[in-house]
Design goal:
This protein is α/β, with parallel strands linked by helices. It folds into three domains: 44-128 and 233-268, Periplasmic binding protein-like II (D-Maltodextrin-Binding Protein, domain 2, 3-Layer(aba) Sandwich), CATH 3.40.190; 132-228, D-Maltodextrin-Binding Protein, domain 2 (3-Layer(aba) Sandwich), CATH 3.40.190.10; 296-505, MetI-like fold (Orthogonal Bundle), CATH 1.10.3720. It contains 20 helices and 15 strands. It has helices spanning 2-27, 31-36, 70-82, 96-99, 115-118, 160-171, 184-192, 203-213, 241-255, 258-268, 278-282, 286-294, 300-333, 343-356, 360-371, 378-404, 407-415, 420-450, 462-473, 477-505; strands at residues 44-49, 52-53, 57-59, 67-68, 85-90, 106-107, 121-123, 128-130, 132-137, 152-156, 177-181, 198-202, 217-221, 230-232, 235-237. A five-stranded mixed beta sheet has the order 11-10-12-9-13, sandwiched between helices. The chain has a three-stranded parallel beta sheet with strand order 5-1-6. A three-stranded antiparallel beta sheet has the order 2-3-4, with helices on one face. α13 runs antiparallel to α18 (420-450), α16 (378-404) packs across α18 and α17 crosses α18 (420-450). It is elongated and about 115 Å long. The protein starts with a helix and ends with a helix. The protein binds glutamine. Glutamine binds at residues 50, 53, 93, 109-112, 156, 159-160, 202, 230. Residues 50, 53, 93, 109-112, 156, 159-160, 202, 230 line the site of glutamine.
Length: 506
Protein backbone atom coordinates (compact mmCIF):
# COMPACT_ATOMS: atom_id res chain seq x y z
CA UNK A 1 0.00 0.00 0.00
CA UNK A 2 2.73 2.41 1.15
CA UNK A 3 4.83 1.57 -1.87
CA UNK A 4 1.93 2.22 -4.20
CA UNK A 5 1.28 5.69 -2.71
CA UNK A 6 4.99 6.45 -2.98
CA UNK A 7 4.98 5.43 -6.63
CA UNK A 8 1.95 7.58 -7.40
CA UNK A 9 3.50 10.56 -5.60
CA UNK A 10 6.77 10.14 -7.47
CA UNK A 11 5.04 9.96 -10.86
CA UNK A 12 3.02 13.04 -9.94
CA UNK A 13 6.10 15.07 -8.96
CA UNK A 14 7.98 13.89 -12.05
CA UNK A 15 5.12 14.93 -14.32
CA UNK A 16 4.81 18.35 -12.63
CA UNK A 17 8.56 18.91 -13.05
CA UNK A 18 8.33 17.79 -16.67
CA UNK A 19 5.34 20.01 -17.45
CA UNK A 20 6.98 23.00 -15.74
CA UNK A 21 10.27 22.69 -17.61
CA UNK A 22 8.45 22.07 -20.85
CA UNK A 23 6.21 25.10 -20.52
CA UNK A 24 9.11 27.30 -19.40
CA UNK A 25 11.24 26.32 -22.35
CA UNK A 26 8.31 26.84 -24.69
CA UNK A 27 7.41 30.30 -23.34
CA UNK A 28 10.84 31.89 -23.57
CA UNK A 29 13.87 31.05 -25.60
CA UNK A 30 16.58 29.07 -23.86
CA UNK A 31 19.86 30.77 -23.04
CA UNK A 32 21.61 28.73 -25.69
CA UNK A 33 19.18 29.93 -28.30
CA UNK A 34 19.46 33.58 -27.24
CA UNK A 35 23.23 33.39 -27.48
CA UNK A 36 22.91 32.13 -31.03
CA UNK A 37 20.89 35.18 -32.19
CA UNK A 38 23.04 37.37 -34.30
CA UNK A 39 22.39 40.99 -33.28
CA UNK A 40 24.61 44.04 -33.60
CA UNK A 41 24.84 44.37 -29.84
CA UNK A 42 24.65 41.31 -27.58
CA UNK A 43 21.27 40.97 -25.91
CA UNK A 44 19.85 44.02 -27.67
CA UNK A 45 17.55 44.20 -30.65
CA UNK A 46 18.26 47.46 -32.47
CA UNK A 47 15.07 48.34 -34.29
CA UNK A 48 14.88 50.87 -37.13
CA UNK A 49 11.67 52.77 -37.80
CA UNK A 50 10.43 56.09 -39.14
CA UNK A 51 8.24 57.67 -36.50
CA UNK A 52 6.03 59.71 -38.82
CA UNK A 53 3.53 56.96 -39.59
CA UNK A 54 0.70 57.11 -37.08
CA UNK A 55 -0.82 54.90 -35.70
CA UNK A 56 2.00 52.43 -36.49
CA UNK A 57 4.84 54.61 -35.24
CA UNK A 58 4.75 58.20 -34.08
CA UNK A 59 6.30 60.48 -31.51
CA UNK A 60 4.21 61.17 -28.47
CA UNK A 61 3.97 64.94 -28.49
CA UNK A 62 2.93 65.27 -24.88
CA UNK A 63 5.39 63.01 -23.18
CA UNK A 64 9.01 63.72 -24.00
CA UNK A 65 8.67 62.70 -27.64
CA UNK A 66 8.69 58.98 -26.90
CA UNK A 67 8.10 56.77 -29.96
CA UNK A 68 4.85 54.83 -29.69
CA UNK A 69 2.44 52.89 -31.87
CA UNK A 70 1.21 49.52 -33.08
CA UNK A 71 4.61 48.47 -34.45
CA UNK A 72 6.42 49.59 -31.31
CA UNK A 73 4.15 47.54 -29.04
CA UNK A 74 4.41 44.57 -31.38
CA UNK A 75 8.20 44.56 -31.53
CA UNK A 76 8.40 44.99 -27.76
CA UNK A 77 6.25 41.88 -27.33
CA UNK A 78 8.42 39.93 -29.76
CA UNK A 79 11.68 41.06 -28.17
CA UNK A 80 10.41 40.17 -24.73
CA UNK A 81 9.79 36.62 -25.86
CA UNK A 82 13.22 36.53 -27.46
CA UNK A 83 14.68 37.76 -24.17
CA UNK A 84 16.22 40.74 -25.92
CA UNK A 85 16.13 44.43 -24.97
CA UNK A 86 14.76 46.86 -27.56
CA UNK A 87 16.56 49.95 -28.78
CA UNK A 88 14.46 51.95 -31.23
CA UNK A 89 16.24 54.13 -33.75
CA UNK A 90 14.23 56.74 -35.66
CA UNK A 91 15.55 57.40 -39.18
CA UNK A 92 14.31 58.67 -42.55
CA UNK A 93 12.10 56.08 -44.27
CA UNK A 94 14.29 55.76 -47.34
CA UNK A 95 17.35 55.18 -45.12
CA UNK A 96 15.89 52.17 -43.28
CA UNK A 97 16.67 49.28 -45.63
CA UNK A 98 20.24 50.46 -46.41
CA UNK A 99 20.90 50.59 -42.64
CA UNK A 100 19.83 46.97 -42.09
CA UNK A 101 22.70 44.86 -40.79
CA UNK A 102 25.06 47.75 -40.15
CA UNK A 103 23.15 50.18 -37.94
CA UNK A 104 19.98 48.21 -37.15
CA UNK A 105 18.98 44.56 -36.68
CA UNK A 106 15.51 44.83 -38.16
CA UNK A 107 12.99 47.25 -39.60
CA UNK A 108 9.41 47.58 -38.45
CA UNK A 109 7.78 50.57 -40.12
CA UNK A 110 4.46 49.59 -41.65
CA UNK A 111 6.77 48.28 -44.34
CA UNK A 112 5.17 46.59 -47.33
CA UNK A 113 6.77 43.45 -48.74
CA UNK A 114 7.60 44.07 -52.40
CA UNK A 115 9.57 42.12 -54.98
CA UNK A 116 12.14 44.89 -55.29
CA UNK A 117 12.74 45.03 -51.55
CA UNK A 118 12.88 41.25 -51.27
CA UNK A 119 15.98 41.31 -53.44
CA UNK A 120 17.96 43.04 -50.70
CA UNK A 121 16.29 42.01 -47.41
CA UNK A 122 14.40 39.11 -45.84
CA UNK A 123 10.79 39.53 -44.75
CA UNK A 124 8.84 37.82 -41.98
CA UNK A 125 5.25 36.65 -42.41
CA UNK A 126 2.78 39.50 -42.79
CA UNK A 127 1.36 40.94 -39.57
CA UNK A 128 -1.01 43.44 -41.16
CA UNK A 129 -2.80 44.08 -44.45
CA UNK A 130 -3.14 47.57 -45.88
CA UNK A 131 -4.34 49.34 -48.97
CA UNK A 132 -3.60 52.66 -50.56
CA UNK A 133 -6.14 55.44 -50.30
CA UNK A 134 -6.54 59.00 -51.47
CA UNK A 135 -7.06 62.18 -49.53
CA UNK A 136 -8.46 65.18 -51.39
CA UNK A 137 -10.13 68.44 -50.55
CA UNK A 138 -13.89 68.28 -50.17
CA UNK A 139 -14.62 69.62 -53.66
CA UNK A 140 -12.46 67.04 -55.48
CA UNK A 141 -14.00 63.66 -56.19
CA UNK A 142 -11.96 60.73 -57.46
CA UNK A 143 -14.24 58.10 -58.93
CA UNK A 144 -11.79 56.44 -61.31
CA UNK A 145 -8.08 56.46 -62.12
CA UNK A 146 -8.50 58.98 -64.94
CA UNK A 147 -9.69 61.62 -62.49
CA UNK A 148 -6.11 61.88 -61.27
CA UNK A 149 -4.85 63.21 -64.59
CA UNK A 150 -3.70 66.87 -64.40
CA UNK A 151 -3.66 66.75 -60.61
CA UNK A 152 -0.62 67.32 -58.37
CA UNK A 153 -0.25 64.26 -56.18
CA UNK A 154 1.76 64.17 -52.95
CA UNK A 155 3.45 60.97 -51.78
CA UNK A 156 6.17 60.08 -49.29
CA UNK A 157 9.62 59.42 -50.76
CA UNK A 158 10.51 55.75 -51.13
CA UNK A 159 7.09 54.35 -50.26
CA UNK A 160 4.87 51.98 -52.20
CA UNK A 161 2.45 54.87 -52.79
CA UNK A 162 5.30 56.78 -54.41
CA UNK A 163 6.15 53.83 -56.65
CA UNK A 164 2.51 53.27 -57.54
CA UNK A 165 1.90 56.86 -58.61
CA UNK A 166 5.17 57.04 -60.55
CA UNK A 167 4.21 53.91 -62.46
CA UNK A 168 0.78 55.31 -63.16
CA UNK A 169 2.36 58.48 -64.51
CA UNK A 170 4.78 56.56 -66.74
CA UNK A 171 2.34 54.05 -68.09
CA UNK A 172 -1.09 55.60 -68.17
CA UNK A 173 -1.63 59.13 -66.97
CA UNK A 174 1.24 61.24 -68.28
CA UNK A 175 -0.20 64.48 -66.98
CA UNK A 176 0.03 63.62 -63.32
CA UNK A 177 2.42 65.85 -61.36
CA UNK A 178 4.16 64.22 -58.41
CA UNK A 179 5.48 66.00 -55.31
CA UNK A 180 7.65 64.02 -52.90
CA UNK A 181 7.66 64.64 -49.16
CA UNK A 182 9.43 63.30 -46.07
CA UNK A 183 6.48 63.44 -43.72
CA UNK A 184 2.79 62.62 -43.89
CA UNK A 185 1.86 65.50 -41.59
CA UNK A 186 3.37 68.10 -43.87
CA UNK A 187 1.85 66.49 -46.97
CA UNK A 188 -1.63 66.74 -45.54
CA UNK A 189 -1.09 70.26 -44.35
CA UNK A 190 -0.04 71.21 -47.88
CA UNK A 191 -3.20 69.58 -49.17
CA UNK A 192 -5.32 71.67 -46.83
CA UNK A 193 -3.45 74.76 -48.04
CA UNK A 194 -4.16 73.73 -51.65
CA UNK A 195 -0.47 73.36 -52.50
CA UNK A 196 -1.24 69.87 -53.81
CA UNK A 197 -4.52 68.36 -55.07
CA UNK A 198 -4.37 65.00 -53.37
CA UNK A 199 -2.27 62.72 -51.20
CA UNK A 200 -1.89 58.99 -51.86
CA UNK A 201 -1.00 57.02 -48.72
CA UNK A 202 -1.67 53.83 -46.73
CA UNK A 203 -5.32 53.65 -45.66
CA UNK A 204 -4.92 53.45 -41.87
CA UNK A 205 -2.58 56.41 -41.89
CA UNK A 206 -4.96 58.20 -44.24
CA UNK A 207 -7.76 57.76 -41.69
CA UNK A 208 -5.51 59.22 -39.05
CA UNK A 209 -4.70 62.25 -41.22
CA UNK A 210 -8.35 62.59 -42.24
CA UNK A 211 -9.38 62.82 -38.60
CA UNK A 212 -6.75 65.48 -37.97
CA UNK A 213 -8.05 67.67 -40.78
CA UNK A 214 -11.71 66.79 -40.82
CA UNK A 215 -13.93 68.51 -42.09
CA UNK A 216 -11.74 69.88 -44.91
CA UNK A 217 -10.96 66.49 -46.44
CA UNK A 218 -12.44 63.66 -48.47
CA UNK A 219 -11.17 60.11 -48.08
CA UNK A 220 -11.40 57.78 -51.09
CA UNK A 221 -10.47 54.12 -50.92
CA UNK A 222 -7.63 53.12 -53.25
CA UNK A 223 -9.77 50.38 -54.74
CA UNK A 224 -10.93 52.92 -57.34
CA UNK A 225 -7.32 52.85 -58.59
CA UNK A 226 -7.10 49.04 -58.45
CA UNK A 227 -4.34 49.21 -55.84
CA UNK A 228 -3.23 45.79 -54.68
CA UNK A 229 -3.46 44.73 -51.03
CA UNK A 230 -0.17 45.33 -49.25
CA UNK A 231 1.42 42.99 -46.70
CA UNK A 232 3.15 44.70 -43.80
CA UNK A 233 6.14 42.63 -42.72
CA UNK A 234 9.21 43.00 -40.54
CA UNK A 235 12.45 43.17 -42.54
CA UNK A 236 15.75 41.59 -41.54
CA UNK A 237 19.14 41.59 -43.24
CA UNK A 238 19.66 38.66 -45.57
CA UNK A 239 21.24 35.61 -43.99
CA UNK A 240 20.10 35.95 -40.37
CA UNK A 241 17.92 32.82 -40.61
CA UNK A 242 17.87 31.96 -36.92
CA UNK A 243 16.54 35.32 -35.84
CA UNK A 244 14.14 35.38 -38.79
CA UNK A 245 12.58 32.02 -37.98
CA UNK A 246 12.29 32.85 -34.27
CA UNK A 247 10.62 36.19 -35.01
CA UNK A 248 8.31 34.46 -37.46
CA UNK A 249 7.34 31.83 -34.92
CA UNK A 250 6.58 34.39 -32.21
CA UNK A 251 4.75 36.65 -34.64
CA UNK A 252 2.53 33.74 -35.56
CA UNK A 253 1.72 33.08 -31.89
CA UNK A 254 0.90 36.72 -31.25
CA UNK A 255 -1.33 37.06 -34.32
CA UNK A 256 -3.38 34.08 -33.18
CA UNK A 257 -3.75 35.33 -29.64
CA UNK A 258 -5.89 37.93 -27.93
CA UNK A 259 -2.79 40.17 -27.68
CA UNK A 260 -3.17 40.98 -31.36
CA UNK A 261 -6.85 41.90 -31.04
CA UNK A 262 -5.92 44.18 -28.15
CA UNK A 263 -3.29 45.87 -30.29
CA UNK A 264 -5.85 46.43 -33.03
CA UNK A 265 -8.33 47.83 -30.54
CA UNK A 266 -5.71 50.18 -29.17
CA UNK A 267 -4.35 51.58 -32.42
CA UNK A 268 -6.19 50.55 -35.56
CA UNK A 269 -9.93 50.63 -35.02
CA UNK A 270 -10.14 54.37 -35.43
CA UNK A 271 -13.57 55.74 -36.04
CA UNK A 272 -13.70 58.25 -38.84
CA UNK A 273 -14.62 61.73 -37.59
CA UNK A 274 -17.38 61.92 -40.19
CA UNK A 275 -18.96 58.84 -38.64
CA UNK A 276 -19.06 60.42 -35.20
CA UNK A 277 -22.07 62.40 -34.13
CA UNK A 278 -22.38 66.11 -34.75
CA UNK A 279 -21.73 67.10 -31.14
CA UNK A 280 -17.97 66.72 -31.38
CA UNK A 281 -17.93 68.55 -34.68
CA UNK A 282 -19.51 71.76 -33.44
CA UNK A 283 -17.48 71.94 -30.28
CA UNK A 284 -14.58 73.91 -31.71
CA UNK A 285 -15.33 77.31 -30.24
CA UNK A 286 -12.50 79.71 -29.39
CA UNK A 287 -12.90 78.92 -25.69
CA UNK A 288 -12.68 75.23 -26.42
CA UNK A 289 -9.61 75.71 -28.60
CA UNK A 290 -8.04 77.73 -25.81
CA UNK A 291 -8.77 75.00 -23.30
CA UNK A 292 -7.42 72.19 -25.51
CA UNK A 293 -4.29 74.20 -26.21
CA UNK A 294 -3.47 75.20 -22.65
CA UNK A 295 -5.39 73.25 -20.05
CA UNK A 296 -6.02 69.81 -21.52
CA UNK A 297 -3.27 67.33 -20.56
CA UNK A 298 -1.58 70.26 -18.78
CA UNK A 299 -0.16 71.51 -22.05
CA UNK A 300 0.69 74.90 -20.51
CA UNK A 301 3.63 73.06 -18.95
CA UNK A 302 5.09 72.58 -22.44
CA UNK A 303 4.91 76.35 -22.96
CA UNK A 304 6.56 76.96 -19.58
CA UNK A 305 9.41 74.59 -20.42
CA UNK A 306 9.70 76.26 -23.82
CA UNK A 307 9.89 79.73 -22.29
CA UNK A 308 12.65 78.60 -19.94
CA UNK A 309 14.69 77.14 -22.81
CA UNK A 310 14.21 80.26 -24.93
CA UNK A 311 15.23 82.57 -22.08
CA UNK A 312 18.23 80.51 -20.96
CA UNK A 313 19.62 80.42 -24.50
CA UNK A 314 18.92 84.13 -25.12
CA UNK A 315 20.37 85.42 -21.84
CA UNK A 316 23.59 83.39 -21.94
CA UNK A 317 24.09 83.98 -25.66
CA UNK A 318 23.58 87.72 -25.08
CA UNK A 319 26.21 87.74 -22.31
CA UNK A 320 28.68 85.81 -24.47
CA UNK A 321 27.90 88.08 -27.43
CA UNK A 322 28.32 91.24 -25.34
CA UNK A 323 31.80 90.49 -24.00
CA UNK A 324 33.05 88.93 -27.20
CA UNK A 325 31.56 91.83 -29.16
CA UNK A 326 33.53 94.41 -27.14
CA UNK A 327 36.75 92.45 -27.73
CA UNK A 328 36.00 92.25 -31.46
CA UNK A 329 35.24 95.98 -31.69
CA UNK A 330 38.48 96.94 -29.95
CA UNK A 331 40.46 94.49 -32.07
CA UNK A 332 38.89 95.77 -35.27
CA UNK A 333 40.05 99.30 -34.42
CA UNK A 334 43.67 98.37 -33.71
CA UNK A 335 46.13 99.99 -36.09
CA UNK A 336 49.66 99.13 -37.10
CA UNK A 337 52.62 101.55 -37.19
CA UNK A 338 51.56 103.03 -40.52
CA UNK A 339 48.17 103.96 -39.10
CA UNK A 340 46.41 101.29 -41.17
CA UNK A 341 44.20 98.44 -39.84
CA UNK A 342 46.42 95.80 -38.15
CA UNK A 343 46.40 92.10 -39.07
CA UNK A 344 44.32 91.27 -35.97
CA UNK A 345 41.97 94.08 -36.95
CA UNK A 346 41.60 92.56 -40.40
CA UNK A 347 40.85 89.13 -38.95
CA UNK A 348 38.22 90.61 -36.60
CA UNK A 349 36.69 92.48 -39.52
CA UNK A 350 36.63 89.32 -41.63
CA UNK A 351 34.87 87.42 -38.84
CA UNK A 352 32.27 90.15 -38.40
CA UNK A 353 31.56 90.21 -42.12
CA UNK A 354 31.24 86.45 -42.48
CA UNK A 355 28.87 86.15 -39.52
CA UNK A 356 26.69 89.04 -40.62
CA UNK A 357 26.65 87.85 -44.20
CA UNK A 358 25.39 84.27 -43.63
CA UNK A 359 22.10 82.91 -42.26
CA UNK A 360 22.03 82.17 -38.54
CA UNK A 361 20.26 78.86 -39.24
CA UNK A 362 23.28 77.64 -41.21
CA UNK A 363 25.65 78.84 -38.50
CA UNK A 364 23.61 76.92 -35.93
CA UNK A 365 23.56 73.75 -38.03
CA UNK A 366 27.31 73.98 -38.71
CA UNK A 367 27.92 74.20 -34.96
CA UNK A 368 25.54 71.30 -34.25
CA UNK A 369 26.50 68.92 -37.05
CA UNK A 370 30.16 69.79 -37.66
CA UNK A 371 31.99 71.70 -34.93
CA UNK A 372 30.29 70.10 -31.93
CA UNK A 373 29.18 66.90 -33.64
CA UNK A 374 29.93 64.77 -30.59
CA UNK A 375 28.11 67.07 -28.16
CA UNK A 376 24.70 65.93 -26.96
CA UNK A 377 23.81 69.15 -25.09
CA UNK A 378 21.87 71.22 -27.61
CA UNK A 379 21.41 74.14 -25.22
CA UNK A 380 25.17 74.60 -24.94
CA UNK A 381 25.64 74.46 -28.70
CA UNK A 382 22.79 76.93 -29.26
CA UNK A 383 24.26 79.36 -26.70
CA UNK A 384 27.65 79.23 -28.42
CA UNK A 385 26.16 79.60 -31.91
CA UNK A 386 23.91 82.53 -30.98
CA UNK A 387 26.63 84.09 -28.79
CA UNK A 388 29.15 84.01 -31.64
CA UNK A 389 26.55 85.42 -33.99
CA UNK A 390 25.43 88.18 -31.67
CA UNK A 391 29.08 89.16 -30.99
CA UNK A 392 29.44 90.31 -34.60
CA UNK A 393 26.44 92.64 -34.32
CA UNK A 394 27.46 93.88 -30.87
CA UNK A 395 30.96 94.61 -32.23
CA UNK A 396 29.53 96.91 -34.89
CA UNK A 397 27.31 98.67 -32.34
CA UNK A 398 30.21 99.24 -29.93
CA UNK A 399 32.54 100.31 -32.74
CA UNK A 400 30.22 103.09 -33.82
CA UNK A 401 29.88 104.00 -30.15
CA UNK A 402 33.67 104.24 -29.90
CA UNK A 403 33.84 106.38 -33.02
CA UNK A 404 31.26 108.74 -31.59
CA UNK A 405 33.44 109.61 -28.60
CA UNK A 406 35.13 112.90 -29.54
CA UNK A 407 38.83 112.96 -30.45
CA UNK A 408 39.19 115.81 -27.99
CA UNK A 409 38.44 113.54 -25.07
CA UNK A 410 41.00 111.01 -26.20
CA UNK A 411 43.66 113.69 -26.57
CA UNK A 412 42.80 115.21 -23.21
CA UNK A 413 43.10 111.82 -21.55
CA UNK A 414 46.41 111.14 -23.25
CA UNK A 415 47.78 114.48 -22.10
CA UNK A 416 46.76 113.55 -18.54
CA UNK A 417 49.16 110.62 -18.80
CA UNK A 418 46.78 107.74 -19.77
CA UNK A 419 48.40 105.16 -22.05
CA UNK A 420 46.64 103.90 -25.19
CA UNK A 421 44.89 101.08 -23.30
CA UNK A 422 44.04 103.35 -20.40
CA UNK A 423 42.30 105.75 -22.77
CA UNK A 424 40.36 102.91 -24.34
CA UNK A 425 39.29 101.14 -21.16
CA UNK A 426 38.75 104.04 -18.76
CA UNK A 427 37.56 106.83 -21.03
CA UNK A 428 36.35 105.63 -24.43
CA UNK A 429 34.75 102.21 -23.80
CA UNK A 430 32.55 103.16 -20.83
CA UNK A 431 31.14 106.11 -22.77
CA UNK A 432 30.61 104.19 -25.98
CA UNK A 433 28.88 101.33 -24.17
CA UNK A 434 26.64 103.84 -22.45
CA UNK A 435 25.80 105.48 -25.77
CA UNK A 436 25.16 102.08 -27.33
CA UNK A 437 22.70 100.84 -24.71
CA UNK A 438 19.55 101.43 -26.80
CA UNK A 439 21.04 99.52 -29.75
CA UNK A 440 22.31 96.77 -27.45
CA UNK A 441 18.79 96.37 -26.03
CA UNK A 442 17.44 96.01 -29.56
CA UNK A 443 20.07 93.40 -30.30
CA UNK A 444 18.99 91.42 -27.22
CA UNK A 445 15.35 91.55 -28.29
CA UNK A 446 16.20 90.41 -31.82
CA UNK A 447 18.23 87.58 -30.30
CA UNK A 448 15.23 86.32 -28.31
CA UNK A 449 13.15 86.15 -31.47
CA UNK A 450 15.93 84.59 -33.54
CA UNK A 451 16.25 81.66 -31.13
CA UNK A 452 12.92 80.41 -32.51
CA UNK A 453 14.96 78.18 -34.87
CA UNK A 454 16.61 76.05 -32.18
CA UNK A 455 14.03 73.33 -32.85
CA UNK A 456 16.39 72.36 -35.69
CA UNK A 457 18.86 71.07 -33.12
CA UNK A 458 16.19 69.09 -31.28
CA UNK A 459 15.52 71.69 -28.57
CA UNK A 460 12.04 72.30 -27.24
CA UNK A 461 11.92 76.08 -27.09
CA UNK A 462 8.80 78.24 -27.11
CA UNK A 463 8.21 77.90 -30.87
CA UNK A 464 8.77 74.16 -30.77
CA UNK A 465 6.32 73.89 -27.88
CA UNK A 466 3.71 75.56 -30.10
CA UNK A 467 4.39 73.04 -32.90
CA UNK A 468 4.17 70.10 -30.51
CA UNK A 469 0.90 71.32 -29.02
CA UNK A 470 -0.46 71.98 -32.49
CA UNK A 471 0.34 68.43 -33.60
CA UNK A 472 -1.04 66.85 -30.44
CA UNK A 473 -4.25 68.89 -30.25
CA UNK A 474 -4.98 69.03 -33.99
CA UNK A 475 -5.23 72.83 -33.72
CA UNK A 476 -3.10 75.32 -35.59
CA UNK A 477 -4.49 78.76 -34.85
CA UNK A 478 -4.50 78.79 -31.07
CA UNK A 479 -1.11 77.18 -30.27
CA UNK A 480 0.76 79.50 -32.66
CA UNK A 481 -1.11 82.64 -31.59
CA UNK A 482 -0.44 81.90 -27.93
CA UNK A 483 3.28 81.42 -28.63
CA UNK A 484 3.39 84.70 -30.57
CA UNK A 485 1.66 86.44 -27.68
CA UNK A 486 4.16 85.06 -25.19
CA UNK A 487 7.09 86.28 -27.32
CA UNK A 488 5.44 89.69 -27.51
CA UNK A 489 4.92 89.88 -23.75
CA UNK A 490 8.51 88.81 -23.08
CA UNK A 491 10.09 91.31 -25.46
CA UNK A 492 7.78 94.16 -24.37
CA UNK A 493 8.51 93.51 -20.69
CA UNK A 494 12.24 93.43 -21.30
CA UNK A 495 12.27 96.65 -23.29
CA UNK A 496 10.08 98.31 -20.63
CA UNK A 497 12.49 97.30 -17.85
CA UNK A 498 15.53 98.36 -19.85
CA UNK A 499 13.98 101.74 -20.69
CA UNK A 500 13.18 102.37 -17.04
CA UNK A 501 16.72 101.41 -16.08
CA UNK A 502 18.15 103.77 -18.68
CA UNK A 503 16.08 106.71 -17.48
CA UNK A 504 17.43 106.11 -14.00
CA UNK A 505 20.99 106.08 -15.30
CA UNK A 506 20.52 109.37 -17.12
N1 LIG B 1 3.59 50.75 -46.50
C1 LIG B 1 4.29 51.75 -47.18
C2 LIG B 1 5.61 51.23 -47.71
O1 LIG B 1 6.09 50.24 -47.28
C3 LIG B 1 4.53 53.00 -46.34
C4 LIG B 1 5.36 52.76 -45.13
C5 LIG B 1 5.77 54.03 -44.38
O2 LIG B 1 5.65 55.13 -44.87
N2 LIG B 1 6.28 53.87 -43.18
O3 LIG B 1 6.19 51.81 -48.57
Amino acid sequence: MHKKINKILLTLIASIVFILTFSLTCGAKSNEEIKSFKTLEKGVLTVGTNATFPPFEFKDKDEDQEIKGFDVDLINKIAKKLNLKVNIVDMPFEGLLPALGNKIDLVIAGLTKTEEREKIVDFTKPYFYGKQSILTLKNVNIKQKEDLNNLTIATQIGTTANEFVKKLQEEELNNIKIKEYDEYDIMTQDLVRKRVDCVVLDDIVAKNQFNKHFPELNLTQGSVLNCPTENYCIALPKGNEKLLSSVDEILNDIINSKEYTELQEKYINIKLKSEENEETKSNNSIVNQFLTTLVEKERYKLYLKGITTTLVISVFAALLGFFLGIVLAVLKLTKNKNGKRSLIGKIANFYINIVRGTPILLQLLIMWLVVFKNFKNGVFVAIVAFGLNSAAYVAEIIRSGINSVGVGQKEAAESLGFGKFGVMFYIVLPQSIKNSIPSLCNEFISLIKETAIVGYVALNDLTRAAFSISAASYQTFMPLIIAALIYYIITKTISFILEKAMKRMN
